[in-house]
Amino acid sequence: MIWMEDTDWAYALQYLGGTESKKGQWVTGGTSWKWDASFENGHGLTPPEGLIEPIRGFGFVWYNFLGGPSSQVGWGMVEEKGFCARVQRFDKGMLVRSTAVPGCLGEQFNWATSPDFPPVFIALYGDGSWKRF
Known about the structure:
The protein is built from 1 helix and 7 strands. The protein has one helix at 56-64, and strands spanning 2-4, 9-15, 23-28, 85-90, 93-98, 121-125, 129-132.
C-alpha cells in the first residue's frame, strides 16, 4: 500500500500472480479511505506467527475496505515505513519514485535513506494497473 500525503489517499497495489511479480492492479477509495485517527494501534487482532496487523491509516483501509484478515492482500509482512517520494502526475496515471533526501515534509523520517530500504519506482496507470521498475 502507498499513502500519498498531498491527497491523503491510500492506494492498494495488488499482485495478481503469475511469473511477473512487479505488476498488477491498484485500487483506491479516494476520499472515502480517509483515516479518522481511530485504531492507532490496530484492532487488537492476533495475526499468524511472523505476520503483523496493519495499523494507523493502512490498518484502517485494510480492515474497513479490503476485508481485514480475509482480504486478498492478507496480513502485513513488515511494519509500514514512510519515505519521501517524487511524484509526477500525467493525464493517464502517475509515477512515484523514492528519494533519499534527509527528511520529508513535516520533518518525518525518510526510510529511503536506510541502506536496507529498496528503492521504489512505480507507475500507476489510469486503467488501474501498476508496474514496478
